[in-house]
Amino acid sequence: MILKFHEYFHHVLNYVSDHGATSGADLRAKIQDLTGVTPEERLLVTDRGTNIADSRIYWAVQFLFQAEALGRPTRGIYEITLLGKDLLRKYPNGFSETELKETEGYKRWIERSGASSKLKSSTDSTSSGEAPQESIESSLSEIEDALAVEIVKQVQDMPPEFLEKSVLELLGAMGYGVDSDSLHHTGGPGDEGIDGIINQDALGIQRIYVQAKRYKTGSNISRETIQSFIGALQGATGGVFITTSTFTSGALEFAGKHLSPKIILIDGPELGRLMLKYEIGVIVRRTYKLMEIDENYFSEN
Questions:
Q1: Other beta carbons less than 10 A from residue 292's beta carbon
Q2: What interhelical angle do 7-19 and 82-90 show, nearest 10?
Q3: To 5 degrees, how large is the angle CA 49–CA 167–CA 273?
Q4: Domain 7-130 falls in which CATH fold?
Q5: Topology (CATH) of 152-277
Q6: What pLDDT, in 10s, does the model give residues 153-163?
Q7: CB 282 within 8 A of CB 275
């Protein structure tokens, strides 16, 4: 199983105490073996692609090193220090970040960082068990989830034509169409259920038809509506039906079984996530870089 971030402190110190100086990469692999991380768990990643088990052990090593419980005799190699041995003797069954913060090594780290007040006021990762990187990514995901919901609410308050044009812009950003001129808005009276046409080649031989329904949340798209959309796909190679609400189970089942032409359904929550991902209707206020040490750079050749 994958342990909490702080639970790896004890395992890391024990391993280097028993086996001597070890590289960071070997430490992460060996600790996963010793703590019973399954093959399936080794593949688990956050929403942003960070490997959970590997990240937690990496940050456990970094905290121990910065707190001087681990030393680096050579580049990329870690060994236990006197402080590390003291921690093992004092806490034979393991310890948390709270206990690590009480050490002189940790206090010196805070002083070296020049960010004493920020580190002291930050939430102790012991409660959640997440590594620092996971906590940051979780916070970002919460912000983005809230934004995705708000985007859809904003679209629901706009005229239907706004949604029709916005989804074409979104599909273009996703890579559909040869160029911007190959995305055509056709919505309006007499559109026969087609709000947009996307030419996938210069001659328009392969075409995707798009329908967009600006419905309030709770007004779900039925199977009959999807059937009507499919009936309008004469000459199309595929269809995309997008709504600000959701689809009934019957609509989802019917679309899933219809393979020619292929039909893709995008509901309100997915629409919000996609608009956020491809930056449609949002602006980037600030970009942060989350970095970690490149151990290959500092390893011995």
A1: 11
A2: 120
A3: 25
A4: Arc Repressor Mutant, subunit A (1.10.10)
A5: Trna Endonuclease; Chain: A, domain 1 (3.40.1350)
A6: 889 989 999 99
A7: yes
